[in-house]
Amino acid sequence: MRSFLPLVALSCLAAVSLPAQVRPPLFFREDWKEIPAATPVTQEHVSNPDLILALYGLGKMGIKKSHHEKPADDPFYIWFGQCEGNCALSLRHKSSYVDLTGQAKVRWRSKQAGFRETRLLIKLADGTWLVSDVSDGPSGDWREFEFIISDLRWRKLDINKVIEGKWVAKPDLSKVDEIGWTDLMPGGLSDACTRVDWMEVYGRPVSRDAK
Q: What's the CATH number of domain 25-207, 2.60.120.430, 3.90.1570.10, 3.90.1150.10, 3.30.70.1530?
């Protein structure tokens, strides 16, 4: 028994530590530069030098990098309130796709108003755009929200109009090119809008040069 118990303990320890070993790392985080507000937001406002910003939809020129002096803890965030049509924002890593299979996830800090439901959008390496069924809804204050990628279902997205289409069964998420968000609606100023402070993506990098 004396020799058996340590083996059991080691086996249990290995089982507990295994998820931590396979959990993907932080691929990127974007916080936005603390510089004056601008409409539309531009590449100048992206704080992570490895990321490229893109705006989409008929209302894209209304996407604003916003900030207010009061309250004192107001973040520098992306605001969709002035979008005159559906709009979307995405970020693309310069040198890598991201593998969003397994235990991949996306986290952000947000604050929606009205009936806004902010959804994750992704562009696959083959050019296909998808939008998630799960959404982050209205809140009276800033809060953190997490998308567990393996739990999501996806609809095809018309990125030019930013309108959802048919369901896509089991898309290949091993090479994701761009990641962002949309609420699939025009902006309604402060009473009906999407606000996103920062975004984190957890997944494994895949070189853009890989075959």
A: 2.60.120.430
